[in-house]
Amino acid sequence: MCGIVGYVGPRDCTDVLVEALTKLEYRGYDSAGIAVFENGKIEVAKSKGRLSDLVGKMEKEGKPKGHAGIGHTRWATHGEPSDVNSHPHSGRRVTLVHNGIIENYKEIKQFLIENEHTEFLSDTDTEVVAQLLDFYYTGNPIRAIRRVMHEIRGSYALGIVFADRPETVYAVRCESPLIVGQGKGEVFVASDVPAIIKYTKDYYLLEYGEIAVLKNGAVNFCDLHGRMLEKELKTADWDEDSAEKGGYPHFMIKEIHEQPTAVKTTIMPRIENGLPNLSECGITRETLKDINNIFIVACGTAMHAGMVGKYVIEKLARVSVTVDIASEFRYRDPLIGENDLVIIISQSGETADSKAVLSLVKGTGAKTLAVVNVKGSSIAREADMVIYTHAGPEIAVASTKAYMVQLSVMYLLAFEISLAKGKIDEEKCRQLTAQLEQVPEVIDAAINKVVDECQYISTKLITADSLLYIGRGLDYALSMEGSLKLKEISYIHSESYAAGELKHGTISLVEEGMPVIAVATQNTLLEKTVSNIKEVKARGAMTIVICDEKAEIDEEAVDYMIRIPQINETLMPMVATVPMQLLAYYTSVNKGNDVDKPRNLAKSVTVE
Ligand code: AGP
């Protein structure tokens, strides 16, 4: 995934592009570049490394000065991160930036070579598009862009400038997200809203196959056939602060602290008279009552939220739920029936594998429900029904608040399905919903209570080569997320394991001093989990136990006990998540890692 931006207006274009790119660095950060019209000529500056490396380079070598241009922050797919592979890429008269992937770039390259366009400098798929556009360009940019769009296959969003069309930026969307911001006498292009929020909250969402032309502070749109379009101007409900760190050292810790509010904003509008009401999302008890099986499909953290969903829906609604990794589900020819429900969970709404599941389900008769954070994203638009989570922008690559709100939606859905299926009555549902309403407060209390302990305990983890997360039932579902969080930002290997399964092989890994983090919030399973904690302790493990304030656990089996505020056992995952996030965060900080932008990762994976 990459981030693209563009600007046409009275401000210093380079400053705007750089500022906007800082808000998109979460999308990719192995190289960056810009192209700006300076005195009618396109000037390019690009560099391997972070955006700060580009800025440093421009400070030394001079920055392009002008009022129209495009910019890019890259997460390499074709060709290693290097100066030459950095965007923008150019043909003779065309310069462009690209987010996405061009599947048939090899054939096109071959075609261009055969037609004597042999000047390829980089290993990227993007340069091929620039050269193809140049090949077809005879003075009419829209005609050339449309021709190219008919020939290239893949997912892409492009920002383009033509050498003989000064002060004009063209933008194109096919699959990869793209918006055009409208300010007073200035216009912006960006892959995501946070990039432009400092300048304007008003934006147009480009749809598949649409082309935008930005000129003289205004924008015009046309479709793939060249027909002019009128588009609806939307207004972002985020303010500038939500895309800034707001005094916190990292986005991740800011986002951890935002969780109580995010959960409140997500659940409160969906509760009416003490009962869940998802009708504004197109979901009624009538639509849920005849559902046979549920499939929850997602990637990474979102899939882990689905795991919690499975336990809760099966427990309360007695409907069979299968949770699958999207990249597996899409190729395993799953048995989906007419009355089944396929739930796709995604923060970004743009994850390639999760998106592919929607096409797979079409034609099976099953209904699709998207649980998505980013409004207007592809998955949200393509599903039959959508529940938006209201976490606001999540910038840190490691997902925290998006996971938390996904959990809250899983609970609301479980309550609603249980009611629809007649497995609980309204009175029981009111009790459960009332407990869910208390969760934001309890999360807040948990953050304040355990933050210092987690900071301290993390100092014991930084030297570990490997560690284990164990739990049973909901605690197992949760430990999967704890383990992922730790490994993605601390770079310490970790594995999550069903506690009862340890003795079937994995316990042989336990040796003197190995940290084992046990999640033990499920009282009905506590005794069993405690036995597993003792087993690893007896083999030399350093045990860290996350449990509620009252859990009776033999202290001798525990090196560090993190006690969290208590709530109904079924809702405990939302509280127990907090120490796991904080342990991961402080371990990463203590190791001196780049917490918000861990190596090799991008915020959302829009390519397969
Ligand atoms: C979370 O910390 C990860 N960075 C990652 O697993 C993420 O949850 C996954 O890529 C799915 O993304 P999505 O929610 O945007 O679909």
What form results from the Cα inertia axes? globular
| Number of helices, counting only DSSP H or I runs of 4 residues or more | 17
Low-confidence stretches: none
Structural class: alpha/beta
Please indicate the percent range of residues in DSSP E strands (runs of 2 or more). Answer: 15-25%
The profile of the biggest β sheet is:
8 strands, antiparallel
Mean pLDDT: 94
Bound molecules: 2-deoxy-2-amino glucitol-6-phosphate
State the end-to-end distance: 10 Å
* Spatial sequence of strands, sheet with the most strands: 3-2-4-1-10-9-11-15
How many individual β-strands?
27
SSE layout:
Elements: E1 3-8, H1 13-22, E2 31-38, E3 41-48, H2 51-61, E4 68-74, E5 89-90, E6 94-102, H3 105-114, H4 125-136, H5 141-151, E7 154-162, E8 168-174, E9 179-182, E10 187-190, E11 202-205, E12 210-215, E13 218-222, E14 228-229, E15 234-235, H6 251-257, H7 259-267, E16 271-272, E17 275-276, H8 285-289, E18 293-298, H9 300-317, E19 320-325, H10 326-329, E20 341-346, H11 352-361, E21 367-372, H12 378-382, E22 385-388, H13 401-420, H14 426-461, E23 466-471, H15 474-490, E24 493-498, E25 515-520, H16 526-538, E26 542-548, E27 560-564, H17 572-590
Parallel strand pairs: 18-19, 18-20, 20-21, 21-22, 23-24, 23-25, 25-26, 26-27
Antiparallel strand pairs: 1-4, 1-10, 2-3, 2-4, 5-6, 6-7, 7-8, 8-12, 9-10, 9-11, 11-15, 12-13, 13-14, 16-17
Bound molecules: 2-deoxy-2-amino glucitol-6-phosphate.
2-deoxy-2-amino glucitol-6-phosphate binds at residues 299-302, 346-348, 351, 354, 397-399, 488, 604-605.
